[in-house]
Input
Amino acid sequence: MYIDRAGRWILSSGITADTGGVARYYRSDLKRNAAVSTEISGYAVSALAFLHETTGDPEYLQMAMRVGNFLVDCAWDRQIGAMPFEFSSDKVVIEPRSYFFDCGIIVRGLLAVWRVTGNAEFLKTAVDCGGSMLRDFDSGTDFHPILKIPSKEPVARDGRWSRSPGCYQLKAALGWRELAIAAGDGRFETAYQRVLADSLRTAKDFLRGDLEPDRVMDRLHAFCYFLEGLTPNLQDEGCAAAFRNGLEQVAFHLHHAGEGLLRSDVIAQVLRLRLFGAAGGFATIDEFAEFEAESLALFQAEDADGRLDGGFYFGLRSGEMLPYVNPVSTVFGMHALYMWARYRDGTLQVRPEMLF
Output
C-alpha cells in the first residue's frame, strides 16, 4: 500500500542522515543525497508523527524523535537563537542563512512530536524558534524571508517568491497559531492574525508574478501554502471565499499545465485542499479529484533499489520523470492519497494541523 511503502522509504532509504537530519532529496541519476535541510526535517517529523498515529508502528515514533532531536540538539543554535538553512552530513552549516518559512515548518514539526511524546525540549525549542521568527524577521511592515546569520541582517529581496515576503508565508505562520494554543502565549496568535490579514490583501496578485511555465508551477506550489494557511479560519466568510476562489485558480492552472514542468507536490496539495474543503463544506469534489489521485500515484517509485522504492519523484517534464526522489513530495503524496481513501470510505476527519 502507498502509505506503508512511503513510510518505509522515510525510515530506511537512507534519506535520513546518521545525525537524524533529512536530506532535501535523493538524486537517482547520481545515486547520492543532497544536503541535510532543517525545513525538510521539519516536514519529516510531522509526517512521522502522523504515520505513528495512523499505523501505531513504534518505528515511526522512534524516527520522529530522532529527527526531532536533530532539530533540538544539532540544528538549533542556542547561542544566537537561530535555525540555519542546511547542513552537511557531518553537522557543518553549509549556508549561513535562516529562512522565515522554514522556521515555521520546523515549529510545526516539533509541536507534532511534542504532542505525541510530551517531551518538554521539543516544546521549548518550538517556542524559542517561534520567538526568533517574531523578534528577528519583523521588518515593521512585513516579515523578511531570509536573514544572514549570525548577524541577522536581512538578505536583499528580489523578484523570486522565495526571496520576497508574500501570502505563502501564511503556512509558516500556522506555527505561531499552534504555539499560541500549546504555550498559551497570545503574542503568537496576534502575529498569525497579522500575517493572515496581509496575506488576504496581497494574495490576489501572487499568481501573476511569473509568465514562464516552470515558474508558474512553482508559484502554484507556494500559493497552495497560502490556502493551507487559511484552513483554521474557513468559518470566516472572507477566508472561505479566498479559499474557494484560490483553489479554483490553482486547479485551473494545474490542469492546463501543458508539456512543461508538472510537480507531484502541487497535485498532492490541490487534492488535499479539495478534500479538506469538502469535509467542511467549503469545496466540492469533482471529476478532477479522481484524476489527481490516479496521476499522483504514478509518481511513487517502484524499484528494487531501496533508496528509491516507495518515495515520490518530484516531478516530470515533457513526459520524462526528473531524477529527484523528494521527501516533501513523498509526505504530501502519501498524505493526499490517504485522505482520498478515507474520503471514499466515508471516514475522513480533518483538523487544521493535519496539513503538514
Notes: Residues 52 and 60 are 5 Å apart (CA to CA).
